[in-house]
Amino acid sequence: LYHIVCPIKYRRVVISPQVDQTIKSTCIEIAKRHEIHFLEIGTDKDHIHFLVQSVPMILPKNIVQIIKSNTAKMVFRNNPEVKQMLWGGQFWTDGYFINTVSKHGSESTIAKYVKDQGKEKEYIKLHADRPTLFD
Predict the structure, then answer these.
(1) What does pTM read for this prediction?
(2) Which of 2, 56, 74, 93 makes the best surface tag, with the fewest CB within 10 Å?
């Protein structure tokens, strides 16, 4: 299992409901063609989290490459307004975050975190100097 975070180029806010749907439907197609299974996809305004399961024969960097190249192509094809917002013709930044996730401890925590991307969090003050986050 891998937790992957991919920021949008220039951290531009381009993920609308239509772009979100394009990315998720493209990931369904990726899963049909490759041994890459998407357990959760969480979009925020300027980056996306993926919780992905794959076979050991596919290198993690190749998983990211497959996801980024396919989704970028489909976003630009189905949402031409995004290409106007991102000069230079790239959807994703060159970098990404990837981390392995254990099935015996952190899978449910990471899955919830990925699923909750883009949702507003509620902060309350327990102490005057430190806000605390609650879902």
Answers:
(1) 0.77
(2) 56
